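sanity check this:
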Amino acid sequence: MRVALVGCGRWGRHILRDLVALGCEVIVVARSAVSRDRAIAGGAAAIVDDVAHLERIEGIVVATPTNTHAAVLAQVLEFGLPVFVEKPLTDDPAAAQALAEQAGGRLFVMEKWRYHPGIEAMAEMARSREHGRVRMIHTRRDSWGQSHDDVDAVWIMLPHDLSIVREIAGFLPDAVAAVGTRGSGQNATLTGLLGPEPACVVEVSSLSPVRERRVLVEYEDAVALLDDAYATTLRVVRKGSGEEILVPLRSDMPLLLELTAFLDHLRGGPGPRSSAEEGVETVERIARLREMAGF
């Protein structure tokens, strides 16, 4: 299967690695010398310097900087092929809506946390009501500094947590309130509240000396905790008795799983989990939370 990868930066090289591992012939669009070197090292079948030079491809993956997504997507959608773009869809709600309308169901957003085994387990508990209804979701994503210079840390980090909320709750609740601070460069902190039901608290920061990835879900009868992105078990504590259950998690890597879903779609299967319409909703929520926080 011939797939185009537009962009081969720090994250794009991992996408290239997994596409090659999945047996794809990957044509990389790369303009800088650094990106071209990464494409060569990653096993690209060919490298071109412009989207216009792509030929005989079956699908397109976009991994360019966030502030270029709107322009790049408008161009690649002209091929009439399925497109998978790294989150967020854009950093502008109006542009995101226009792209979704242009795509006509062919555009999907890469939200790897929806494929995380721990999040999938929490979502299944919510759907089955094994522990009752979801009452609250609390996510925390902290680190020191960020490597993106096109948009601030909120645009990079918060899409992950909103995708987690969507996967577990089955939808994205409304933005209720937010507070935040800006640091130097593109560093930022934001705590947002979504609701009313389930109540959701999402915390992101690139100004924390402690790196943390944490998701806590309160159901009616139990609490589930994923305390690390690479955790091998999900902790479930029953209310009342305090009994703790450790649920084993698969070791599958989320990026590989979401790319597999996209390739299955190219072969005629269903689309990946995050549609362009959902991507628009995520961009709208982030923009609203930023406004509430005074950004």
Helices lie at 12-21, 33-41, 69-76, 93-103, 117-128, 153-169, 254-266, 276-292. The chain has eight helices and 14 strands. The longest strand covers residues 207-219. Residues 126 and 294 are 33 Å apart (CA to CA).
